[in-house]
Amino acid sequence: MSGVHIDSVGAGPPLVLLHGWAMHSGLFAPLLPRLAEKFRIHCVDLPGHGYSAAIAPYALATITAVIADAVSRLPDAAAGPLTVLGWSLGGAVAMHWARVEPEHVGRLILTAATPCFVARPDWPHAMTAATLQQFGDELAVSYRLTLQRFVALQVQGSEHARAVLAQLRTELFARGEPSRVALRAALELLATTDLRADVGAIRQRAVVISGERDTLTPPEAGEWLARTLPCASFRLIPGAAHAPFLSHPEAFLCAIADGV
């Protein structure tokens, strides 16, 4: 395993898909047949996840740099400005990428995304720092069970929760175990990331998609993003939790169509 792993399919303008913490880009497979009718899709495994090598330091700047470099080396890299779909942690990477490379990132689809993953005195729309810290502590003791518990939290409260949980559990280790070092570093990244001061400078057109029942990145965070981004719209998917593209694929694809 070396570098950044990217699977590409379809024809049309380029669409880059970025997944969330502890997962890999194979999770987007159910969306690909429909999206590939309109886009050239590039499914990226984040560093230290799936088939991609770990990097250090594990920071938004370095993650973005290695992904941007890998995408720029694709045969169809000159096909036009990128649309970047970022889910959860991938949403933070997408926002940073749009901020630092506006000439390459033309549009954003931010899914279950937030500028700040941990609650602060002036930011209640997030999980507590103690919850995130618990994941870090438990990773060292019971790695696989902790990841399975995290997967269960992603569907908590969702319609179709059992079916989506089965999908997530099937995919969780389908590309091997994520790097333990990378996962701990990524948790630290989630704990310290606060993009609220940067959001107003992201000028690209964006659609923000939130699940009504998401407890990890609550819809209020998505509403804040849509209000604060200069050119964004907001789509709430009723009955969905943290993985709306799995639980409510039709509604999710409609939200994408509205945004791009």
Question: What would you say this structure looks like, in words?
Answer:
- Helix 4 runs antiparallel to helix 5, helix 4 packs antiparallel against helix 7 (180-192) and helix 5 runs antiparallel to helix 6.
- The protein is globular.
- The mean pLDDT is 94.
- With 260 residues, it is an alpha/beta fold.
- The protein has helices spanning 32-35, 60-72, 89-100, 129-141, 143-155, 161-172, 180-192, 219-228, 244-247, 249-259; strands spanning 6-10, 14-18, 40-44, 82-87, 105-111, 205-211, 232-237.
- It has a seven-stranded mixed sheet, with helices on both faces.
- 40% of the residues lie in helices and 16% in strands.
The strand line-up of the biggest sheet is 1-3-2-4-5-6-7
Q: What is the CATH homologous superfamily assignment?
A: Alpha/Beta hydrolase fold, catalytic domain
Query: What is the beta-strand fraction?
Result: 15-25%
- By CATH, the architecture is named 3-Layer(aba) Sandwich
Q: Note the quaternary state here.
A: single chain
Question: How many domains comprise the coordinates?
Answer: 1
Relative helix content: 40-55%
Low-pLDDT parts are none
According to CATH, what is the class?
Answer: Alpha Beta
Count of discrete alpha- or pi-helical segments spanning 4 or more residues: 10
Question: What is the name of the CATH topology?
Answer: Rossmann fold
Total beta strand runs: 7
Radius of gyration from the CA trace? Answer: 17 Å
What summary fits the major beta sheet? 7 strands, mixed
Q: Tell me the series of helices and strands, N- to C-terminal.
A: EEHEHEHEHHHHEHEHH
- Calculate the terminal CA-CA distance, rounded to whole Å: 34 Å
| Anisotropy-based shape | globular
